[in-house]
Structures are given as C-alpha cells and as structure tokens.
Write a structure and sequence with these properties.
This protein is of the alpha+beta class and 376 residues long. 37% of the residues lie in helices and 25% in strands. The chain contains 13 helices and 18 strands. The strands form four sheets. Strands 7, 8, 9, 10, 11 and 12 form a six-stranded antiparallel β-sheet that branches. Strands 13-15-14-16-17-18 form a six-stranded mixed β-sheet, sandwiched between helices. A four-stranded antiparallel β-sheet has the order 1-6-2-3, with helices on one face. The chain starts with a helix and ends with a helix. The relative contact order is 0.10.
C-alpha cells in the first residue's frame, strides 16, 4: 500500500517531523489560490506513486501565483512512467544549505529492518550507491529493540549526518512502527541556513496485511495507480507490475516468487508478478496472458504451472483461447507439470504457434525466457 507524497508528509507532521506548508489540488485555478496562501512562490509537484518525477518534468518552481496556475496546468494530466497525474501538491519553498537521505526498509532475507542513510541526499539512493558505495550507510535494526536515541546516534555518526538528525530518525522509526509501514523514506532531508532539518519529500509503503488498522486512507492509498495493475484488479487478477522484461505467470504465490528468483538468476529481470490462483479456469489464464502481453516492456513471457487444483489442460486451453484473440508478437515459453500435464502439453502441440515453445523444467524454461528477452 504505497502512499502519495502528500500523505507521507502528513504522517511525518503528525509524528513531529518538520515539513513545509503544502496543499493538494486537482485544479489549476485553485493552485493559483494555494500559491497565494503560501506567500506567492510555490513548488508544484505531481502526485504519483512512482519515482523520476523531476526528470519527467513533474516538478516545477513557480515564482508567483500566476506561474503556479500555469505549472499546475502543465503537470496535471501528464504521464509519468505510466502513471497519470491527477493531483498536484503545492509546497512552500525552503532555503537549502545541504541535503541528506534517511530511510528504514524491511530486509526480509535478514529478518530485520535496515536503516539506510547518506550525507548525499536529493538524488536516487541507487545512483549514490552505484557511484560511491562508501557514501551509503546500512545498519540493521532489531525490530524488538527499535531505534533508540543511542541507535539513532550510531546511524548519524556512521553516515555523517548532523546531530539534529538523531531526533528525526527516532521519530521516523515511530512512523514505521505505529503506521504499520514496510518502508519510510525521506529524500531529501534538508538543512536550512537556520540549522533546521525539514523533510522535503517522503515515501511510505504500508503493510497490506495491516490495512484493517489503516482504514483512514480508504481506497486512495490502496487502489492501483499503474494502469496495468488497475486493469488486473478489474478482472480479479493478482498482478504486480515490476521493472523488467520477462513476463511471469504462475499458479500460487510461492511458485511465482520462486519463478521470479530463477528468472533473475538467469540474468534477466521479471516484468511482473501474476498469480492466476489455485483454481484458475481457462478464462482466467486467457485474461492473464492478454494482460502480460499488453505490457510494452515485456520481451518474452514465461508461463510456469504446477498442476494441482488447476489442471494443466485447463491452462493449455486458456493459452490457446488467448492466442485466438490476442496477436502474439513476443515469444512465449510454457512449462507444465503436475495434474494433467501430459494432456496440457498435447493440447499445445495440437495448436502450434511459431512463437510458443515448451520446456520440461522451471530452470530450463527460465533460461530460455531470459535468453529470448535479452536477445530481443
């Protein structure tokens, strides 16, 4: 459950972290009035659940209310990485002396949270880590002990942050715990000439499993912002868009997660997580395949099915049905095993397609899909 930036800053303010004055609108005319209330000048920021807003032109500094209206009019309706801008936030500009990065993120592999901090804020932390790995501090946090002032001091000292950041880190941890978050990030955390620390931008991801405790956000936070995820939700499909080139379809979350890992191990990146479920019909398979094929980033598709409740012949029928209605322009690798696997493979053999091939194991299917994607 990703929050919009204005929702993240609302949480920060509630927990005592300083943020600039700001208001949100979907109207260019109202943007002019908001800028006037903020003192004239305003930073106009697209509210979308994706990064790269600045590079895409989704952030602008308006010198006066009239410019704020024009900037809001330009940004509203923009497409940023597949996300349509429906609202903008106007924030009061802040004089910046230096910028820092701080975050807490769940490290599932290590079974703990990870504090990530850097004295080089204002840019994507991945870029900083790639350019200067020693400029990014990573410190494990025991969930049972949390971030005490002493632990925050350790993070501050290791990352070279100003001493005032101790209080910010303690409060940011409070946001994570009390709001059931998996990620809380401030970038940049700005120091003003008056030596104040202000969170200029924030990102918060809440745990979907705790949504019953986070009803305050209603459908605005939980609803899919990505058009493919929205289309999947409308069809009742369990789909998550990822930043890769191999479309992945499987039955069962565990199998799909394993498939993602195997694809990554073969040198390619998964383009999605799509679980068609344990009792998926041929219709569900057809819907899922059509959805994945509609993603322009997908270069190849891997269908990995272990038949149980879902019989492999039903999956094969779904693939054949989808190919009757969807023009296949990307290679499709299918691995069927388990319940009625032989019959499923025979159905695909009976309906040959030049872009469809079968594999007998998950490893061989992933290798082939990865090879096809990277060669495209």
């Amino acid at each position: 459950m990703d929050l919009y930036e204005h929702q993240a800053r609302e949480l920060f303010a509630e927990h005592g972290i300083a943020v600039p004055r700001a208001e949100v609108t979907d109207s260019p005319k109202e943007a002019r009035e908001i800028a006037r209330r903020l003192g004239g000048r305003a930073v106009v920021k697209a509210q979308v659940k994706t990064g790269g807003r600045g590079k895409a032109g989704g952030v602008g500094l308006a010198a006066d209310p009239a410019a704020a209206e024009l900037t809001a009019r330009r940004i509203l309706g923009m497409d940023i990485n597949g996300h349509t801008v429906r609202t903008v936030m106007l924030a009061q500009p802040v004089d910046i002396e230096s910028e820092f990065y701080v975050s807490y993120v769940l490290d599932r592999g290590a079974g703990c949270f990870l504090a990530i901090a850097s004295a080089e804020g204002g840019t994507e932390i991945e870029e900083v880590a790639a350019r200067r790995p020693d400029a990014v501090t990573r410190i494990p946090i025991d969930p049972a002990q949390g971030v005490t002032p002493a632990k925050a001091g350790e993070i501050v000292a290791a990352a070279g942050l100003p001493s005032q950041a101790v209080d910010v880190l303690v409060r940011l941890w409070r946001v994570l715990v009390r709001e059931d978050a998996l990620l809380v990030e401030v970038n940049p955390l700005a120091r003003t000439p008056q030596d104040r620390l202000i969170a200029l931008d924030g990102k918060v991801t809440l745990d979907d499993n705790a949504s019953f405790r986070q009803a305050r956000w209603g459908g605005t936070a939980a609803g899919p912002d990505d058009p493919l995820e929205a289309a999947a939700a409308a069809k009742g499909l369990h789909y998550v868009k990822l930043d890769g080139e191999v479309g992945v379809i499987g039955n069962g979350a565990g199998l799909v997660m394993s498939t993602l890992d195997v694809v990554a191990g073969c040198g390619a990146r998964p383009a999605d997580f799509l679980d068609i479920g344990g009792g998926a019909s041929a219709g569900v398979m057809a819907d899922g395949l059509a959805l994945v094929l509609s993603d322009p980033a997908v270069k190849s598709v891997l269908v990995n099915i272990f038949g149980g409740i879902t019989a492999c012949d039903a999956v094969a029928e779904g693939i054949v049905r989808a190919l009757d209605t969807v023009r296949l322009t990307k290679p499709l690798v299918v691995r069927l095993d388990g319940n009625n696997a032989a019959r499923g493979r025979a159905i695909l053999d009976e309906h040959p397609h030049p872009l469809v091939e079968q594999a007998t194991t998950m490893d061989s299917a992933a290798r082939r899909a990865a090879r096809l994607a990277t060669a495209a």
